[in-house]
């Protein structure tokens, strides 16, 4: 089985205000090209898990593999590069820089990676905007566009470095049903046409039901 992401026995505690075993023996994988969702009650540990999987949180025991490579325990300076290059992340809130144009926002993670020329990055960013059918917004200030458009720009930004997996923490949580549907269809298209792997935390059952697999979390565990 070809996995883009795999975990082995991930455990995490929060020690303040008192010891709390938040993630318990999490072992699972996301297959290449799979569109998986994570559901579970509030407080079951979904966001905590996603922050570990996206290498934003390194305080845990167990193992995380991306593209079969063990990333757990790497030197700290490696993580921002791994994250920037291999993982696209979409939050509930878009976190766009409001004074920058849409195009500049999408270009930023590629600028940070510093592997391509400005012209190449601009071309790639325009291609992502075209793919998401928002290229007409390229020169608009991010503060001037609608909520649904902002989330599509955030997706374009998450894709700019051609990640191996796109993760989302309730990316449709702030959207009305029309815009949420739009985002689902974009994710589905990314899977079907680009072969992208996706792992999306959601509270929306209709959204989850339409993904390839629902991973259920309860009390810090994945329900088998
Ligand atoms: N920094 C922290 N310190 C202590 N406890 C924390 C911390 N962050 C989260 N928790 C606790 O860990 C548990 C899991 O939180 P988490 O945010 O992962 O849940 P979730 O399933 O994503 O919930 P929601 O659906 O409400 O976003 C909760 O009980 C939360 O209160």
Description:
The protein has a single domain (3-222), classed as P-loop containing nucleotide triphosphate hydrolases (Rossmann fold, 3-Layer(aba) Sandwich), CATH 3.40.50.300. The protein has helices at residues 46-53, 76-86, 102-113, 118-131, 147-159, 177-194, 205-209, and strands spanning 3-14, 20-31, 35-40, 61-66, 69-70, 87-90, 165-169, 197-201, 213-218, 221-222. The model has no long low-confidence stretch (mean pLDDT 96). The protein has a six-stranded mixed beta sheet with strand order 6-7-8-3-9-10, with helices on both faces. Strands 2-1-4-5 form a four-stranded antiparallel beta sheet, covered by helices on one side. The relative contact order is 0.20. A hairpin with a 2-residue loop joins strand 4 and strand 5. Helices cover 36% and strands 27% of the residues. Helix 3 (102-113) packs across helix 4, helix 3 runs parallel beside helix 5 and helix 4 (118-131) crosses helix 5 (147-159). With 224 residues, the protein is of the alpha/beta class. The chain contains seven helices and ten strands. The structure holds adenosine-5'-triphosphate (ATP). Adenosine-5'-triphosphate is lined by residues 14, 20, 22, 40, 42-48. Residues 5-223 form the ABC transporter domain. Belongs to the ABC transporter superfamily.
């Amino acid at each position: 089985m070809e996995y883009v992401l795999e975990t082995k026995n991930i455990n995490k505690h929060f020690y303040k205000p008192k010891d709390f075993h938040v993630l318990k023996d999490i072992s699972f994988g996301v297959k290449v090209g799979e569109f998986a969702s994570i559901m579970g009650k509030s407080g079951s540990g979904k966001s905590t898990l996603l922050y570990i999987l996206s290498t934003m949180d390194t305080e845990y025991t167990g193992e995380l593999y991306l593209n079969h490579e063990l990333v757990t325990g790497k030197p700290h300076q490696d993580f921002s590069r791994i994250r920037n290059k291999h993982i696209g992340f979409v939050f509930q809130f878009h976190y766009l820089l409001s004074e920058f144009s849409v195009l500049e926002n999408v270009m930023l993670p590629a600028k940070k990676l510093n592997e391509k020329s400005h012209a190449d990055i601009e071309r790639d960013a325009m291609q992502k905007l075209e793919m998401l059918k928002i290229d007409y917004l390229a020169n608009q200030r991010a503060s001037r566009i609608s909520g649904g458009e902002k989330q599509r720009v955030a997706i374009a930004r998450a894709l700019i470095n051609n990640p191996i997996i796109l993760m989302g923490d309730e990316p449709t949580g702030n959207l009305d049903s029309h815009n949420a549907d739009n985002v689902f269809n974009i994710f589905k298209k990314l899977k079907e046409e680009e072969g992208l792997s996706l792992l999306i935390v959601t509270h929306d059952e209709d959204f989850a039901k339409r993904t390839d697999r629902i991973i259920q979390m309860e009390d810090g565990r994945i329900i088998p």
